[in-house]
Design brief:
- The chain has a domain at 2-59 and 149-328: Beta-lactamase (3-Layer(aba) Sandwich).
- The protein is 38% helix and 20% strand.
- The protein contains 15 helices and eleven strands.
- Strands 1, 2, 3, 7, 8, 9, 10 and 11 form an eight-stranded antiparallel sheet that branches. Strands 4-6-5 form a three-stranded antiparallel sheet.
- It is globular and about 60 Å long.
Length: 347
């Protein structure tokens, strides 16, 4: 267990976040590792680009005429903006279904403007606001295309879920029999897999996209192109996943998962990255990911400048004053301790 990030207040360390980092290439070679990468974690929503593969590889997305914009949102944890609701609605229309068939549940959108709009208009949120609604449309689409039952498409023992699990096993290079399957917040299956293998799955999706001999070439290429061309669908305005892809000029894909999981795939290098913050606090994820990309020399000066606000995230008080920040600490020679004074603080 290694220190990855700290939160400062008035120049002093108040909290410390510990976690794991694994960076691998598509051959399985570990490029960088902090902590034990054999530690098993839930893949969470970082699995969504891999979960989308069978929908495309099967021919289902092509059969129903899904666009790249719609494929991108299928890989998303979207923030529930109007553009996301409209896109999910259009996908449902294409497969001849209504929103009430989705099993993802209802949640208040995490886009503040849309949440405030609902509150002020006294509207209730719907399944379309759920950040996993498009993933569920993808699962429903696969079930419908394969003539499986659709009433229980989200259940662990459903044949569509078996196909998705088989794909997860292949991309992670982890035996299906060893994968523990749990239930995600949206009611769909999710998988416990070693951090190393999760990172490997992102290296492999990038590699398969470049390998015309891979059976998954078309699906992986389509997913990566879709996420990069429509990053606003993957998360939303002012969200890290969206800005990371928008400002890096097609170099990578990035996907967050709940409980502070984050995965990145580097396009031309065939590199996969998995980050897990042990305490599950997402605030530490983004500075850590940015630091990894700096160390790997993935980003140029302009890209780093555009994403600087994610490298050292400001901490503000109730008066909107900057009183501290969250910054990566794993590159520093000396690990921080509680109460340490931090040099060059932004406060």
């Amino acid at each position: 267990m290694e220190q990855l990030a700290v939160l400062t207040r008035s120049g002093y360390v108040e909290s410390i976040h510990y976690g794991y980092i694994c960076v691998v290439d598509s051959s399985g070679k570990i490029i960088k590792e902090i902590g034990d990468s054999n530690t098993k974690i839930y893949f969470r929503s970082s699995a969504k680009p891999i979960q989308a593969v069978p929908v495309i590889e099967s021919g289902a997305s092509q059969h129903f005429g899904f666009t790249k914009k719609e494929i991108s949102i299928m890989c998303s944890s979207h923030s529930g903006q109007i553009m996301h609701q409209d896109t999910v609605t259009e996908m449902l229309k294409k497969i001849g279904e209504e929103a009430n068939v989705l099993k993802c549940g209802i949640m208040i959108p995490y886009n503040k403007e849309e949440a405030n709009r609902l509150q002020s208009s006294k509207e209730k949120p719907s399944v379309l606001h759920c950040s996993c609604s498009a993933k569920h449309v993808g699962m429903l689409t696969l079930a419908k295309y394969k003539n499986y039952s659709i009433d229980d498409y989200n259940r662990i023992d459903h044949p569509a879920q078996h196909e998705i699990l088989n794909t997860i096993s292949y991309f992670t290079d982890y035996n299906e029999e060893n994968i523990t399957v749990g239930i995600d917040g949206c009611g769909a299956p999710i998988y416990i897999i070693p951090i190393y293998n999760i990172a490997l799955s992102y290296a492999r999706i990038m590699n398969f996209a470049n390998d015309e001999n891979s059976k998954y070439h078309k699906a992986c290429k389509t997913i990566i192109e879709s996420m990069i061309e429509y990053p606003e669908m993957v998360a939303g305005d002012e969200e890290f996943c969206t800005e990371l892809m928008r400002f890096t000029n097609g170099k990578l894909i990035g996907k967050v998962g709940s409980e502070a999981v984050y995965c990145v795939g580097i396009k031309d290098k065939g590199i996969g990255i998995c980050v897990k913050i042990i305490d599950g606090n997402e605030r530490a994820v983004y500075p850590v990911v940015m630091q990894i990309l700096k160390e790997l020399n993935i980003l140029d000066k302009n890209e780093l400048n555009n994403l600087q606000h994610w490298s050292r995230v400001e901490l503000k008080n109730n008066l909107d004053e900057v009183i501290g920040d969250i910054l990566p600490s794993f590159q520093l020679l000396n690990k921080y301790k509680l109460g340490d004074k931090v040099a060059d603080t932004s406060v």
